[in-house]
Amino acid sequence: MIKHREINRIRRSIIIGLVQIVLVTASLLITTYSSNKLERELTAYNKLIYYVADLKVESYIFSNVYYEYQAVKSENEDYETRLATISDAMLEDMEKINKYADTSGGYYSKLLKVEDYILDLSNAVGLNMSYDDLAKKRQLLASVISDVETTLNTESTNEITKFKELAIISQGLTIFAILSLISLFAINVKNLFNYKKEMQEQSMLDSCIDELTRLWNRKYVDKILPDMAIRSNRGYLFMVDMDHFKTINDTLGHNIGDEVLRDFANVAKNCLRPTDIICRLGGDEFMIFSPNISKDEQATAIYRRLRKAVKERFEGTPKDIVTLSCGAIAYDKRLDFNKNYVRADEALYYVKEHGRNNFHIGQ
Description:
Helix content: over 70%
Order of helices and strands: HHHHHHHHEHHEEHEHE
Radius of gyration: 28 Å
Largest sheet: 5 strands, mixed
Shape: flat
């Protein structure tokens, strides 16, 4: 009788053990599968969002260059080369989008429209399309791209929600089996903690990006830039203000003003060094931190390069009244970031008080 009872107890223990192993295994499989699936899908979504945003910027640039090209009213190989380069970039981004796109996704039919508009823009020169027709197509393209971005963000959010629901099930199964398989439970907790930490870090970085220009924003300046400045051996802090920006808004409209800000952001990113950090503080005010430079001549060269690039970008367009006022200081690590900020701002104020469109290095 005792032996029979012992056998039953052993059988129950084996069954419970097997059930626990199955539960933990199922938990691990669910967690691993959903995590890998989420990673793949989020990677695809992020790639799509990135390349779609690139297309939006490139289409704006293409439209502006095409406006200049039409204004010349004659064959101009330089403009045609620039248009061909931008066109190639748009088509290349479209190929990348098709690579990551899911034909079953709610956004796919809209991507087909995007591709049609991109092809229309790319063929504008050959078809001798009028600027008005091209502008209409670009506006339609921008509208469809906005729809695509909204759909992508919604679907990526839904995927995260599904993952969280699966994670809750996984945790419940693991807790049920924790007494006998604590080590496996600990691994799951660690994995989930690491994932949460990575998501929080990514969320923090995403919140530091200016929506209009895709530059770092004021939050980045407040939360991250001070530490980076301290870790840098040396550097210069620039404050940049766009002269006559209000006039652009008042005479050409805020949409053109937004284009000016985006154009400036693209110009700045292209002519600054990869190590330079540029942030939009708000309105038409920007901050640049250039690490690893120690001479006023180097800072002056950065400003001249930026001013020249901006002039070339807007020359011959209604935006050509825009110039740059810039103040800079050699970053002093003995002072806190706000005091360095004030010094740079005072240098900018000096320029604006003495005629604008110039550069001054403060004390």
